[in-house]
Amino acid sequence: MISFIIWDASPEIFTIPEFFGLGPFPVRWYGLLFAAGFLIGQQIMIHIFKKEGKPLEDIDSLTLYMVLSTVIGARVGHFLFYEPEVLFRNPLEVILPPYAGLASHGAIIGIITGLLLYSRSRAASGQTFLWVADRMVITVALAGAFIRFGNLMNSEIVGRPTDVSWGFIFMKNLEFRQIPRHPAQLYESISCFILFFVLLWIWNRYKAATPRGLMVGVFFVWVFTLRFFYEFLKENQEAFEDNYALNMGQILSIPAVLLGVYFIVRSRQHRIQQPVHNR
């Protein structure tokens, strides 16, 4: 007899009661995990800055750039890739609640933009774009793991029907709770956790000698190659995707993988071109 996992977890941790005519305010796992990605990521960057002798006073500025660029990029990306008609009809929806749509591809574009702006005035301290980006992807991988687990707690971004024994029945998802489905959110979360430890190992081995762009390339190839294949196990996010052989997540992942390959090749060439000193 095949058994399945009944997933009936509440997306809310607790509710702050109404006071002074405001509220009540639910505190959700997704929001907590989203914030934890930034808070823990900041501590990781502090450790890296200390080890490599970078100015710690830059951490707060870097964190601010990352928070704003991630949220804005994810919001704009959602409307641009999945609901462009809303973006052009009413651009204010990007900043107005409820914040129901966040696109990971948009977040990556936002992060790249934020890092370009941050590093532009800090080259003198060695914080070039690739130096910062190589280290920032360590924290982005961890944040991705947290966010995908938050999706699991929300019973959203569910997988397609399956008969595997680890299939989840998402009781809180009224649209898809009838039959077992792939826990696609969990697949992606675990993949990001593994990537986090791989990138941390690469940095810990090489530190300042890490070939520029290597970890960025590994991040892009790992995340978006797996994302391409995971999408075959997931329900499409928007109805228009049902008309195409590949959905939007897969289409956007292809150039991301190619960009990752470029960075890896570039990093190897950079390492080869380093001057050799006679001892």
Automatic annotation (TrEMBL):
Sorted UniProt keywords: Cell membrane, Lipoprotein, Membrane, Transferase, Transmembrane, Transmembrane helix
MF annotations from Gene Ontology: phosphatidylglycerol-prolipoprotein diacylglyceryl transferase activity
> In the Enzyme Commission scheme, what number(s) does this protein have?
2.5.1.145
Under the cellular component aspect of Gene Ontology, which terms does the record hold?
A: plasma membrane
Q: Where in the cell is it found?
A: Cell membrane
Task: Classify the protein's membrane topology as the record does.
Answer: Multi-pass membrane protein
Q: Copy the pathway line from the protein's UniProt record.
A: Protein modification; lipoprotein biosynthesis (diacylglyceryl transfer)
Pfam families associated with the record: LGT
Task: Name the chain's protein.
Answer: Phosphatidylglycerol--prolipoprotein diacylglyceryl transferase
* UniProt keyword Translocase, yes or no: no
Function according to Swiss-Prot or TrEMBL? Catalyzes the transfer of the diacylglyceryl group from phosphatidylglycerol to the sulfhydryl group of the N-terminal cysteine of a prolipoprotein, the first step in the formation of mature lipoproteins.
- Transmembrane regions: 29-49, 61-82, 94-117, 129-149, 184-202, 214-233, 245-265
One Gene Ontology BP term is:
lipoprotein biosynthetic process
